[in-house]
Every structure is written in C-alpha cells, then in structure tokens.
Amino acid sequence: MWEHRLKKICGAVCLAALALLLSGCAGTELENKTFPLAVIIAQEEGRHTVCYLAQQLSEVANERADGGNMTAADASGSTYYETHQSFEKNNRCRLDMTHTKAVIFQKGFLESPEFPVFLDTVRSENTYARNTLVYISDSSMEEMAELNNTLEVPLGSYLEQMTENEQEVNEQAFVTLGALLNEQANASRTLLIPVLKENRGLPEIQSYEVLQGFEAKGRVGVKEAQIYYLLAGQMKQMDVFLDQREQVRLRKLKCRREFYMENGKVTQRLILTADAQRITGNAKQERIETMLRNRIEETCRSELAERGVDLTDSSRWLAMCAPEVYAEYGRKVREYWGELEVEGEVLVRGEDAG
Q1: C-alpha angle with apex 51: 49 to 53, nearest 5 degrees?
Q2: Residue-wise over 317-349: b if at least 16 C-beta within 10 A, else e?
Q3: Could you give the CA distance from residue 34 to residue 159 in angstroms, rounded to a whole number?
Q4: Residue 220: which of 208, 234, 204 has the closest Cα?
C-alpha cells in the first residue's frame, strides 16, 4: 500500500515539474492542453466518433477530483488519427493522453477493420501509456459520458480504482493497451476484455469479450472468466458455493501444467492446488475437489468444442513447459487450439475442508 502511495506522490511531483517546463515559451502552454482520463471510441458506417472525458486544468494535479470538474467533448473523422487531429484543430488545444486511465471501445469495434489501425496509430504516435486499461462498452457513448458527470470521481479514475480494489483478481489480470499491442504482433494468446454496462448509475462488468489469436471470438460470462483467471494464476482468492449451505473460500491458488502429445493430439493436464477455509457448512475435501475439477473441465471443454476458445490460455506456456509441443505447434497456434484437450486435477489443503 505504501509503495503504491509513493508512486502516486512521485507522479504528482513529476506532473508539477512538467507543468513548470511547459509554462515556458519553448513548449505548449499548460492551459492549451486537454487531459482526458478516459477515451470512448466508436466506429459506425465508416466514421469514427471519439468522446474525450477530459479533466479541467485546475484539477490536473488531482486525478481523483470530483467528477463534476470534468468535460466531455466529441470529435469525428474517417480514421482515429483524423479524429484526434480534428479535435485539436476545432478546440485549439493539444490532447495529452499521458494521464488517460482507460480506453473504452464501443460494442463491435474489435470486429471492425479499424481496430488494428487504431493500434497501429497508438504504436506509431506513442501517445498513450502502455498500462492504460482497456474496456468494451454495451452502454451508449452518451450514457458513459453521463456516468462521468455523476460518479464521485471521474470515470477513468473510477475504473482504475475498480482494478486496485478488486478482491479476487490481481491488477495484472486486466487487459491494457500494451497487452493488445503485444497480441497484435504475436497473435498467440487468449485475452478477456471486460464489458461495461451502466447499471443504476454505476459502470458494471457484466461479461467479457474474448480476443484469441487477435481475433474476436464472442463473449463469456463472469463464471467462465473466473475459471480463466483461476488457471492463469491471477486469483487472490475464490469463493466456492457447493450448495445453499456449503461455502468455502480458497486461497494460495496455484496452477501447474503438464502436456502430453500423442497422434497429433495435445492433452493439457491442469493441477490446481489451494488452501481452503470453511465459511458455512462443513464441506469435505473430496467434495470440493470433485466439484471444482468438474467445473474446470466442463467449462474449458465446452468453450473449446463450441467456439475453439482456449480459456486456459495454454499456448503461452508451451515454450517453458512443453518444448516438444512448442516445436510442433509454436508457429501454428491455430492448429494447436484445434488439437487441444483438457484434463483437471484439484488438490485442496486445510483443516476446515475436512
């Protein structure tokens, strides 16, 4: 916690130093800059629309200031780059994206040909930080802009706080622009991008968009995403509901992988270990292990069979854990996903688990 606060303090100091530098005649005047904390991007009928949820100059040093100090401004163009330039020209300012917390794509953007073009622009212009969070939105651009006005903090800061305060999933689990740029170059991973929807005045994650091999593969629910994070080693803890009377909390979750190849088929054996703490009831160890193993196998096998989605994100582990499989499929990852089978084993420790 102290380390995180220290980073914030250092960031504020750096921002103050930057403001002093920019106040000179050689740089852009600070009052001539716009600082979006969140950017909403939509593409429809060949036109881009971008909404910049920007922070007023007086609040730049306080990135968690009241949401009422925010402005929302739209721009449009045939490409993202043109839209960006159009905004600066029409508003007589420079866009400074160094404080942007989140980029929010409207529904359907990942499937459009403009998605890789946007990433190409980000890479060449180098305007965004690589750790900028990425989301999809099912709510309209207007609804998201209204959230920015009604939340206690700006929408971008609110989404950042969601990742920091997440009880189950590590911060590193959330997709960033850096992860998308890497995936565009390598096209080998399975990523889950959170989908936001306004609900009673708050942005909620209600599903996840699957990006696999840099191809949009549809959506999975929260329960499927939980299995993805569990197998990726990105869960801090996990509550398991066996029935209405039996609930167990799992901690120290670790997943080890073993790979076997026979006749071109690859079997991935997932060995999950965890410490169990009884919350309600008196769940037995064997029952917890069986329930969780079945859930892992059924979820992973179903997604593989129905849509070819590898929720285990296993290809990233091949070079380290299975060099012989990597030698066969390292450059043919789509063929690998078609030949993959999944088996699970769960080992639970803890006195409270019986």
Answers
A1: 170
A2: bbeeebeebbebbeeebeebbebbebbbebebe
A3: 20
A4: 208
Who's near 302: CB < 8 A, 6+ residues apart?
none
What type of residue sits at position 143?
E
Q: In the predicted model, is pLDDT for residue 193 greater than 70?
A: yes
- What is the C-alpha to C-alpha distance for residues 264 and 342, in angstroms, rounded to an integer? 14
Sign, CA torsion 209/210/213/215: negative
> Tell me, what's the pLDDT at 71?
66
Task: Kindly state the tokens that stand for 29.
Answer: 């005047």
- Running DSSP on this structure, what letter comes out for residue 177? H
Beta carbons within 8 Å of 179's beta carbon, 6+ residues apart: 134, 191
Residue 19 predicted with pLDDT over 80 = no
- Joined together, the tokens standing for residue 212 give 């696999």
| pLDDT at position 344 over 60 | yes
**Token pair in block for residue 197:** 């929807």
Q: Kindly state the tokens that stand for 266.
A: 């690859």
In the DSSP assignment, the letter for residue 32 is: G
Cα angle 237, 242, 245 (rounded to 5 degrees) comes to 105
Nearest to 316 by CA among 215, 212, 216: 212
- What DSSP string describes 57-83? GGGTT-TT--GGGEEEEEEEESSHHHH
Check: CB of residue 315 under 8 Å from CB of residue 337.
yes
pLDDT value of position 34: 83
Query: In sequence order, which ranges of 53-171 are alpha helices (DSSP H)?
Result: 80-91, 114-125, 141-150, 155-164
- For 264, which DSSP code? T
CA distance 109 to 119: 12
Q: Which two tokens stand for residue 309?
A: 């989605």
CA distances from 102 to 26, 79, 105 (A): 30, 20, 10
